[in-house]
Specification:
172 residues
Length: 172
């Protein structure tokens, strides 16, 4: 905040002095972490103050008026929050953050030998399309086991983004 003084002199040599105070209000600053979700999930975005300047109000482009908002975008989307300081004529911080939306992995299942096996023979189920796989029935991905009955096995694959999807394979 500063006081400015101006001296004006007219054509007759007469002068006058005026002063004005310019009040500089602090700007509240906030951060919002970028996040990554799998399609179909909900992202929670939270504006976190990073200065001692009090935030009096929030306004998100989602319509929320609190520090946090949720969204379920279907594509990668940028969200904006306006954080206004307290008091009349308060300054505002504008922050944008991106929610990256990752697609689900496309999981396929295969059996070796094919989906028909003789009772008591070894079968190996393998999933593909993701990074890790979890099978029902105690099956370990890519590891042979003994087929004892017609069974539907479900595999859940998880990719590097933590997104999961499932598919099934029937061994008869």
């Amino acid at each position: 905040t500063t006081q400015y003084t101006v001296t004006g002199t007219d054509a007759n040599g007469c002068s006058n002095i005026k002063t004005r105070n310019v009040t500089v209000k602090p700007v509240p600053t906030v951060t919002v972490a970028a996040t990554s979700i799998c399609i179909g999930q909900t992202a929670t975005l939270t504006a976190v103050p990073t200065t001692t300047v009090a935030v009096g109000s929030y306004s998100w482009n989602t319509g929320a008026t609190t520090a946090s908002t949720t969204a379920t975008p279907t594509v990668t989307t940028t969200f904006t929050v306006f954080a206004a300081g307290t008091g009349g004529g308060a300054c505002t911080d504008t922050v944008r953050t991106t929610v990256t939306v990752n697609s689900l992995p496309i999981i396929t299942a295969s059996a070796s030998p094919k989906d028909t096996a003789c009772m008591g023979s070894n079968v190996t189920l393998s999933g593909s399309g993701a990074s890790t796989y979890t099978w029902t029935g105690g099956v370990i991905n890519g590891t042979a086991f003994t087929a004892t009955a017609t069974t539907i096995y479900t595999v859940t694959g998880t990719d590097v983004n933590g997104c999961t999807n499932t598919t099934k394979d029937t061994i008869t």
